[in-house]
Automatic annotation (TrEMBL), chain A:
It comes from the Bacteria. It holds the Pfam family DUF7479. It comes from Desulforamulus aeronauticus DSM 10349. Residues 13-70 form the DUF7479 domain. NCBIfam families: DVU_1557_fam. This is DUF7479 domain-containing protein.
UniProtKB/TrEMBL annotation, chain B:
Pfam families: CCG, DAO, Fer4_17, Fer4_20. The keyword 4Fe-4S applies. This is Aldehyde dehydrogenase, iron-sulfur subunit. GO terms for cellular component: plasma membrane.
Length: 70, 766
């Protein structure tokens, strides 16, 4: 799964809990017993992630549908 | 689902059955395809289609008695198609020389055909093509002699010669001047050859052989026979060709040692089950043959072929957006659904097909064979749920909405204030309560005023979403609760304002007697309303779940007439009414299709619509069509000049149900409910209209957003976007993770955007 338009977004997104700017990091998202490793803007300290709208309503939705039809 | 059940559904769809011309033709020329090619000017392609079924195309096209023509549906709108003349045109307009016919690999068996008429020639042609070594006995001195004699006026000798050249290519041995019994005995033939076909039965043999009409076999092993020579002359030429073919099929089966009788029903002329409507087909006369000619020129043939209506059924597809949307027809869909249910691995491509049907049953009403595809879709959904194969996202939202409607905040069951028993029980349904709670109040006031013996009230959902989504167990659970409360109330008669509730109860709780609210208004008279606003003319949209309720449909119209409204009937109404896009939860499983369904329906009449289902009303009004609920008209709140009044959004619908319960409890029963308000519910939100639209489209509720903000503000787990200056937070309260982009504003929060996904982020909800 590519994060598409979210690329570079980490530079302007800050984790308010830790007060740190987010960095691209590995995250494993799961759905219906399937795991997907993806690169997402992530707080290096607490692990809070950012999923951009384009990703959630685009590629992610596509993968969800494909898994539901499996 | 068991195979037999699927087959029963599949068998009912007749779309793939042959057109009447094809079925009536004893050799089943694919006339429909042939005419489509001619129409496009592709005569060579048309010729190939013709020759596929007809062994001697030049000869047959000149002498065919075209029984197909009397069956042609075009005959019901102008003249039947001049099929034989078009076949002749195909032969004449062929642009390339006929390719050589080569037989299949040689087989060792030897067959003798006696008689060179149409039967004998056809049998010789078919068997030689299959690779048998064929000898043909002709009584005359040239092959085709009987043809030139019998059809002298219409059949040029050159056509005969050209067609008969095929027997050279096929290596058929022709023995001229040979007559059985005179030159050689049948007994000798039987000994010399593996099979004998007496295509014209010599008079001496007529009394000695009995011929089986289906297989043309006789009591003599390996001897097959057709009728007398006189019969051939009198009978249909194409019928004779068919008989020759029948003999060839039998001989081939005999020589291969397989059943002579199996699966022969559709040989020869038969009646097709294909239905083709000619309603709306403009009558057209036959294109005349050219001046001084007995045949069509190219242009004339193309024009005549263009009159062909290309018979097919598609009665259901014509009236149903869902069936149109998937670009097929029920038989195809049933196969896809069957495959979908049976497959274990791989992509279940038909999930959307199964979940998109409104289950409304219009297909059954218009199908000549009564096929109800929705019934199959319903069964398929149940099976998917049982097997854990139902996509979670398909019906998640409406099921949660149903659970909300049947949760403590919304449900209410009470005897009428001041009564301890209930003769009646008003069940307005969850959607009227959500869409127009004030109507529920008024209707309840009306029925309690009119009816004696106590009219109780039951606020809740009938469980239809569970039934539609295939969740049989959940649905049964809902029904059992309703039944238990109804029994506790003393089994009163239910007053229903929603035809979906009516349909569910009639089918699943038949012991509950019901009456529609509309029947009561009709019976007890309409309330007097001062300063009532009503349109002069309306088109009635019947709810799809009222399809079978003729009395109900009539009552609605009667009420409208009494209110002084002129009624326009939509092209499909009453038992043929269309769904509004909500039925079967189509709206949630296939949003785009539901949109198309609504648009199709609202464009059927320029008149304002009146619906008696709250969802139908809200759906049409949401698309900008001025649509009133029947109660809007009854209570004079149907402003015919104001723009369409949109119904409340999903969040407001929930709130309306909660408020309705509390208001009624307080005002009618004098009870004050203290609702345990969740901590998030007090969070004030500022949401612009465009964001509200996004929420409706993405099925995100105010409460979902409140939960996200509550979580973010409590835990501090939120992001800040330096570019937009907005906070961003996510939270997963159910199976869905919601994202909210927001900013604090005026003791509350301004919402800029919201979206969701079902993929889970590790520890996303902490």
């Amino acid at each position: 799964m590519s994060q598409g338009k979210g690329q570079g977004a980490e530079k302007v997104i800050e984790c308010m809990k830790c007060g740190i700017v987010m960095e691209l990091g590995n995250v494993e998202v799961t759905y219906l017993n399937s795991k997907f490793p993806i690169q997402l803007p992530k707080c290096p300290q607490c692990g809070l992630v950012y999923i951009p709208e384009e990703l959630a309503t685009g590629k992610m939705l596509e993968v969800e549908k494909a898994l539901e039809d499996k | 689902m068991d195979h037999k059940k699927i087959m029963e559904f599949e068998e009912k769809c007749i779309q793939e059955h042959p057109p009447a011309c094809n079925a009536t033709c004893p050799v089943h020329v694919d006339v429909r395809s042939m005419l489509a090619e001619i129409k496009a000017g592709r005569f060579t392609e048309a010729f190939h289609i013709y020759r596929k079924s007809v062994p001697l195309p030049g000869i047959i096209s000149h002498i065919c008695d075209q029984p197909c023509r009397s069956a042609c549906k075009r005959g019901g709108a102008g003249d039947a198609i001049a099929i034989a003349a078009l076949e002749k045109a195909c032969v004449q307009q062929m642009s390339i020389p006929l390719p050589k016919t080569t037989p299949s690999p040689r087989k060792p068996e030897r067959v003798v055909i006696v008689g060179g008429g149409l039967r004998g020639l056809t049998a010789a042609h078919d068997l030689a093509k299959k690779g048998y070594s064929v000898t043909l006995f002709e009584a005359g001195s040239t092959l085709g002699e009987s043809l030139s004699k019998n059809f002298a006026a219409v059949l040029p000798s050159q056509v005969i010669a050209e067609d008969l050249a095929i027997f050279d290519q096929l290596g058929v041995a022709i023995q001229l001047n040979t007559t059985v019994d005179k030159d050689i005995s049948l007994a000798a033939l039987s000994q010399d050859y593996d099979a004998v076909f007496l295509s014209t039965l010599p008079s001496e043999q007529q009394d000695q052989l009995t011929i089986d009409p289906i297989t043309l076999s006789t009591e003599q092993k390996g001897v097959f026979a057709a009728g007398s020579p006189d019969k051939e002359r009198a009978a249909s030429p194409i019928g004779a060709v068919a008989e020759g073919r029948r003999a060839a099929i039998s001989i081939d089966r005999y020589l291969q040692g397989v059943s002579l009788t199996a699966a022969r029903e559709n040989e020869g002329s038969f009646k097709t089950r294909l239905f083709t409507s000619i309603i709306g087909v403009e009558p057209l006369p036959v294109v005349p043959l050219g001046h001084n000619r007995s045949f069509y020129g190219q242009e004339e043939a193309m024009q005549e072929a263009a009159r062909c209506i290309q018979c097919q059924c598609l009665e259901c597809v014509k009236v149903c957006q869902y069936l149109t949307h998937f670009k097929g027809y029920p038989k195809k869909y049933i196969r896809q659904i069957n495959h979908n249910l049976k497959m274990i691995k791989g992509r279940h491509e038909a999930n959307t097909l199964i979940n998109s049907c409104s289950l409304c049953g219009l297909c059954q009403e218009v199908c000549p064979e009564g096929l109800h595809l929705g019934e199959l879709c319903g069964l398929a959904r149940q099976e998917m749920v049982t097997k854990g194969k139902m996509p979670p996202s398909a019906h998640d939202f409406p099921i949660r909405d149903m659970e909300f409607s049947n949760g403590e905040q919304c449900v209410l069951t009470r005897h009428q204030p001041g009564h301890t028993v209930s003769n009646y029980l008003f069940f307005p349904g969850c959607q009227l309560s959500a869409s127009a709670p004030n109507h529920v109040e008024r209707a309840y006031a009306y029925v309690t005023e009119q009816l004696s013996g106590g009219v109780g009230l039951m606020l809740r959902c009938c469980g239809a979403p569970a039934e539609w989504s295939g969740r049989t167990e959940v649905f049964d659970g809902e029904l059992q609760q309703i039944k238990a409360q109804w029994e506790e109330m003393g089994r009163p008669r239910l007053i229903l304002a929603c035809s979906t509730c009516g349909q569910m109860f009639k089918k699943h709780l038949p012991e509950m007697k019901t009456i529609s609210l509309w029947e009561l208004y009709d019976q007890y008279g309409l309330p007097e309303v001062a300063g009532a606003e009503r349109p002069a003319r309306v088109a009635v949209h019947d709810a799809c779940t009222s399809r079978q309720e003729e009395d109900l449909q009539e009552r609605v119209r009667k009420i409208l007439r009494e209110l002084g409204c002129q009624i326009d009937e939509l092209p499909t109404s009453r038992d043929k009414t269309e769904c509004c896009g909500y039925g079967g939860l189509m709206q949630f499983a296939n949003h785009g299709l539901a949109d198309d369904v609504m648009k199709r329906r609202i464009n059927q009449s320029p008149a304002d619509y009146v619906a008696y289902c709250a969802i139908c009303r809200d759906n049409f009004a949401g698309k900008g069509k001025r649509t009133y609920h029947l109660l809007d008209l009854i209570y004079g709140e149907a402003n015919p000049v104001a723009p369409a009044r949109r119904g409340p959004g999903y969040s407001q619908r929930r709130e309306n149900r909660v408020r309705l319960k509390n208001k009624l409890l307080k005002e009618l029963w004098g009870e004050k409910t203290v609702l345990a308000e969740n901590s998030f519910a007090t969070i004030k939100l500022w949401i612009a209209e465009d964001v509200q639209e996004v929420m409706e489209h993405r099925l995100i509720l105010v409460e979902d957003i409140q939960k996200v903000i509550e979580h973010a503000e409590r835990t501090g787990k939120k992001l800040f976007n330096h570019e937009s200056g907005h906070y961003l937070a996510y939270y997963q309260p159910v199976s869905v993770t919601y994202w909210v982009e927001y900013q604090p504003e005026n003791e509350g929060f301004r919402i800029y955007n919201t979206y969701s996904h079902r993929m889970e982020i590790p520890h996303g909800d902490e």
